[in-house]
Amino acid sequence: MLDIKYYVLIDAVERHGSLQAAAAAIGLTQPAATHRIREMERRLAVSLFEKRGRRLFLTPAGWRLLEAGREVIPILMAAESEASLLARGDQKALKWGVDAYDIVDRILSKSMEYDVHPIELHRFSPHTILSALFDQQIDLVLTTNPPVQKGIETLQLFEDELKAVVPATHPLARRESVSAEEIASEPYLTFSAAREPGYEFDLFFHPSRQVPESIQIIESVRSILDVIATTQRGVTILSSWIIEAAQMQKTLKTIPLQDVKIPVTWHLAYLDKESIKERLPALKAVFQSLMRSPDSQSKRSP
Predict the structure, then answer these.
(1) CA 2 to centroid of chain Cα atoms
(2) Of 42, 47, 179, 222, which sits most exposed with the smallest number of CB within 10 A?
(3) How confident is the model at residue 302 (pLDDT cuts 50, 70, 90)?
(4) How far is CA 88 from the centre of its chain?
């Protein structure tokens, strides 16, 4: 089996196109790099490079080794880093992926109380965050659409429902429920206007043949709430725990949707790694304590 240093050299040659530049990039002299290539080709009994003009190009055999190296090297580097941290008694930071539901300040402070730290925040759009989890750019994410993917585990946190969010001074704030027509007549703020199955555009607006007259896309729930609370104008529809988590009960009100209840179940999706699993009980406690609405406490997952 070839040592990792050989794969590093193959990668450097492909990136830089010449042996001289590749050797300089990884701290070798050109004669040492030449010797390393000859040693690889001798041991494998294949040609890995071909020269065209002044540039080196990979043969099919070389490309196969490059692909394997680029897949394995990052994994080995991460493992070495984690091993070093464990040897020092340190704990690797959890990489939490955050999308439009970016109410994070209380969660971070609560994580300190539960000794779930350090936590790094990495921001992604709602459309790319699960891909980031699959690619292991992040360790965990809160989601209402738990993925079914090898290497990914999910943990149910709590059940909730979508409700209208209106300014506390708005006449709708005194209603027991609001209709699609009433919401559609107000400036509507949302992080996505896509008609996704099982959500408000599909189950609330569409059956009533209503479309908000004015839609403003803001890919940040925190910003949406700040705008409505500050101006006391505009409405939105969100998972109902959000107002409590954002601590905006005095300036915003959540109102049930008329004639329909849209349930949402929140999950923690995470990489199937022991370093994450061992912190799951504390993680679950943190998210459940901060992200459940008062009327959903009886529905918490065991």
Answers:
(1) 35
(2) 42
(3) very low
(4) 29
Q: How far apart are CA 83 and CA 62, in angstroms?
A: 31
CA dist 28 and 39 (Å) reads 15
Give the pLDDT confidence score for residue 84 in this predicted structure: 61
**In the chain, at which residue ranges do the beta strands (DSSP E only) sit?**
49-52, 55-58, 94-98, 119-123, 140-143, 152-167, 187-190, 214-217, 236-239, 252-255, 263-271
How many Å is the Cα radius of gyration of the chain?
A: 26
Phi-psi region of 88 (alpha: psi -120 to 50; beta: other; left: phi over 0): alpha
Distance CA 176, CA 254 (A): 10
CA-to-CA distance for 6 and 33, rounded, in angstroms?
A: 9
The kind and range of the H/E element at 31 are: helix 30-44
Q: Please give the pLDDT value at position 86.
A: 59
Range list of H helices, 121-165: 129-134
Nearest to 100 by CA among 287, 295, 239, 205: 239
Q: Which helix (H) or strand (E) holds 8?
A: helix 4-16
- E strands, 99-243, are 119-123, 140-143, 152-167, 187-190, 214-217, 236-239
Residue 109 burial by CB count (10 A; 0-12/13-18/19+): exposed, middle or buried?
exposed
List of residues 6+ apart from 170 with CB closer than 8 A: 232, 235, 253
Burial of 259 (0-12, 13-18, 19+ CB in 10 A): exposed
What's the whole-number average pLDDT of the chain? 86
Cis ω on the peptide bond leading into residue 118 (within 30° of 0)? yes
Contact of 289 with 110, CB cutoff 8 Å: yes
With beta carbons less than 8 A apart as the criterion, state whether 131 and 262 touch: no
162 strand-pairing partners: 239
Helix 4-16 vs helix 60-87: crossing angle, to nearest 10: 120
Give the model's pLDDT for residue 299.
39
Tell me if 160 sits within 8 A of 264, measured CB to CB: yes
